[in-house]
Structure to design on (607 residues):
């Protein structure tokens, strides 16, 4: 009996130890799960490409995950699965401002791939003018769920639906971008769509500029109300009172979760020659024309592509010229007959929107010997053609006979365009402006190679004949004769507007910082002197006079009203109300404590 009792006690003791060990294991697992960072979405969802009964929902994660889906409807009782793909060119580098890297090269010494996955689901069978609640979710590899907040979606609005459209451009992580978008929401509330005329970020292959730049001004957070940005107070001399005040934190505006975004390709959506060694800024600044890359390929074709594979050729030429792959992978926009979204047309309510691809590489106007610029090559590169920049060359032709021009000609003749109440053309490059970037003319650079008597190169320079400006000579007359109401653009980082004799309005509304200035007498643009071509130093090179704001223009130091806003302290946004046909422009002074938003201009698109 005693042995049995001792044995029983031993068994109970062992069982107790096993149970305690198992309990400890469970507690450790629970502790690990609780302490582990939960999976999160890299962005809120945003809306793309609405049709009469559907709309696409897009979001991003840093994990591949499974079961990505949109849940929608009453009690989110309906679901649609998303398709997933990894973005192919997302990287960080020495100049990224992400995570622990707050100065150049702290973490990254060269470009490093960053794995980011894009998820897209099309929600179908929607009803016009009915807003449907939705949210997205993604499941990580450990089974944990990342879930968005709750938003609303709707298909294309039918004709005669009054809409508010935000007109904007050139966000580029500029200091005032989150402020600008926050003031949009505070002033006009939610909008029904955003038309953004190019230059969304600075370097399109730098992931953090889209998603999580640690300065708090990345593209998606700013348009989704998730930014965290302050604006440095500029302290007057001997006055420290303003600097000592806590600065407001601007969060941007929660806009694109519930309103579709329509964009145009700008020069900052285009990367130059690809490399995993050179920094991303250097790659962005290093495109060459397709024809040059094709010529270089032909010289080495048997070495590069012994099997004469067309895919190999296309990839080589793209990697050795320029590409807009990241932009095209991120967005789902309407497509053109070529199957891409680099230019497109769509109907949205009473609007027929035409988005053009009119952009060229931006180069400095300097004539210094070390400038690879608009007008010249660097002296040190004269005998190294591999380093030539080939001037301010155009990325996609819009000249007569080009695919884009012929498509545009047909679009302007279409019933969809002709019968629309509002006909809007959006492009990045300005056809009319008193800013800097309208000079030189939008045409192919004409190269001149000057040599010494022995044949060695003395200089390589570029001219841009004004008579050959494709936008002014060929495109704008066609657009105006088709009855276009509004041409929207950016590129010079200012606000100014014009009206042509035919009645077409031109609006440049891209003032969120880094303004290139406005040039009315006596202020002069930096232009070359003594070149074959005469470049316009002041005013609109293409002959229109800027229109003074109708309500409350800003004034100069002499109290004179100005027909523009070109400021790094005052930000501007514009909104089209299709119910009234009025475009209203607003300004906000970020340097004035307790400033209010001021409506300073309005004009009507209707006769």
């Amino acid at each position: 009996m005693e042995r049995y009792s001792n044995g029983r006690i031993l068994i109970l003791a062992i069982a107790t130890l096993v149970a305690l060990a198992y309990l400890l294991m469970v507690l450790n697992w629970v502790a690990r799960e609780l302490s582990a960072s939960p999976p999160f979405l890299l962005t809120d969802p945003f809306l793309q490409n609405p049709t009469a009964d559907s709309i696409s929902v897009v979001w991003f994660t840093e994990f591949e995950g499974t079961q990505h889906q949109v849940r929608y409807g009453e009690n989110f009782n309906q679901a649609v699965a998303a398709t997933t793909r990894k973005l192919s060119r997302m990287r960080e580098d020495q100049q990224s401002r992400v995570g622990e890297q707050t100065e150049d090269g702290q973490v990254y010494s060269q470009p490093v791939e960053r794995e980011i996955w894009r998820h897209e689901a099309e929600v179908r069978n929607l009803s016009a003018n009915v807003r449907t609640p939705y949210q997205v979710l993604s499941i990580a590899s450990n089974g944990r769920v990342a879930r968005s907040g709750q938003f609303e979606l709707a298909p294309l609005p039918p004709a005669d639906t009054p809409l508010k459209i935000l007109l904007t451009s050139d966000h580029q992580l500029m200091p005032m971008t989150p402020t600008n978008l926050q003031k949009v929401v505070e002033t006009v509330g939610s909008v029904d769509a955003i038309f953004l005329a190019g230059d969304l970020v600075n370097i399109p292959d730098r992931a953090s500029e889209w998603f999580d730049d640690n300065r708090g001004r990345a593209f998606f957070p700013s348009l989704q109300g998730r930014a965290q940005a302050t604006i440095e107070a500029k302290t007057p001399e001997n006055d420290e009172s303003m600097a000592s005040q806590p600065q407001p934190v601007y969060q941007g505006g929660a806009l694109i979760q519930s309103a579709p975004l329509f964009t145009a390709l700008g020069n900052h959506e285009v990367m130059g020659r690809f490399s995993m060694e050179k920094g991303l800024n250097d790659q962005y600044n290093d495109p060459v024309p397709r024809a040059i890359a094709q010529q270089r390929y032909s010289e080495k074709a048997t070495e590069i592509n012994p099997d004469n594979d067309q895919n190999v050729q296309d990839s080589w030429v793209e990697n050795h010229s320029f590409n807009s792959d990241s932009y095209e992978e991120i967005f789902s926009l309407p497509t053109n007959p070529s199957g891409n979204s680099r230019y497109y047309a769509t109907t949205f309510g009473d609007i027929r929107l035409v988005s053009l691809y009119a952009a060229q590489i931006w180069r400095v106007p300097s004539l210094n010997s070390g400038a690879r610029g608009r007008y010249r090559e660097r002296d040190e590169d004269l005998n190294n053609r591999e380093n030539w920049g080939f001037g301010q060359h155009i990325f996609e032709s819009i000249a007569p006979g080009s695919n884009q021009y012929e498509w545009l000609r047909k679009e302007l003749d279409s019933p969809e365009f002709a019968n629309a109440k509002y006909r809007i053309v959006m492009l990045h490059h300005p056809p009319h402006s008193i800013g800097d970037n309208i000079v030189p003319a939008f045409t192919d650079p004409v190269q001149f190679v000057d040599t010494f008597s022995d044949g060695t190169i003395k200089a390589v320079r570029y001219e841009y004949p004004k008579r050959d400006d494709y936008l002014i000579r060929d495109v704008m007359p066609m657009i105006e004769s088709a009855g276009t109401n509004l041409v929207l653009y950016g590129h010079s980082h200012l606000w100014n507007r014009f009206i042509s004799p035919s009645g077409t309005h031109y609006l440049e509304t891209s003032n969120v910082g880094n303004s290139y200035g406005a040039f009315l007498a006596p202020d002069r643009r930096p232009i070359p002197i003594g070149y074959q071509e005469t470049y316009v130093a002041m005013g609109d090179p293409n002959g229109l006079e800027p229109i003074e704001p109708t309500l409350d223009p800003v004034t100069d130091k002499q109290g004179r009203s100005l027909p523009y806003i070109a400021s790094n302290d005052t930000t501007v946004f514009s909104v089209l109300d299709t119910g009234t046909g009025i475009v209203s422009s607003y300004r906000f002074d970020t340097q004035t404590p307790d400033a209010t938003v001021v409506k300073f201009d309005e004009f009507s698109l209707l006769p």
Notes: Confidence is low (pLDDT under 50) at residues 29-36. The two ends are 110 Å apart (CA to CA). Residues 1-36 form one domain.
